[in-house]
# Entry
Amino acid sequence: MVIAIDGPAASGKGTLARRIAARFGCAHLDTGQLYRAVGMAVLRADKDPADAAFAALAARALKPDDAILADPELRSDGAAQAASKVAAVPEVRRALLDFQRSFAARPPGGAAGAVLDGRDIGTVVCPDADAKLYVTASVEVRAQRRLKELRERGIPAIPDAVLEDMKARDARDSQRAVAPLKPAGDAFVLDTSAMTADEAFEAAVAFIASATGSAAAR
Ligand code: DC
# Structure
């Protein structure tokens, strides 16, 4: 069973994907971490994330057991912005495609299936996924959530700057030529602007259970 979860930054898709994977006994891959790892590798080599040749090299070198994938610095805003730039490079996307498809075809740990979350899972990486979700919320709500998360982590943040960064990343992710962020035609669109995380989770579970015919074990 393959479950594809896409959506814009700070839509809550990551938390949702982890909970769904646990509920359905699936392995989970946060594909944004792959792009963040490539972005970080480029920054650490003092290169420009828009340098297509270097970014492609870094993407091809990324291995599933790479320590960088567990580096807490991947959650930083610097890594997010670099990720969104390397993600616009076609060779980077091509290099990461095999990584993601292998995970979906052979989930680690003998899991019954795979949950992948990202921007193009339902449209490009796993177009034949058994269930596709597109998780979204208004840009203002997402900026508020990001602000709260940053403050909880003790990181000072200016509301207007967080909102502007979010808009810039949305624009880059949805306007790029290759695999832009958009819902797959057959995706269930879940707008969580007015939902709690638990409400979003229950709505997602109900959809997946009916799409896959699988019992949502509690
Ligand atoms: O989900 P995230 O914020 O960790 O993603 C970081 C960046 O990586 C995001 O701005 C766009 C890119 N990305 C992508 O292009 N395709 C994916 N499947 C996942 C992430």
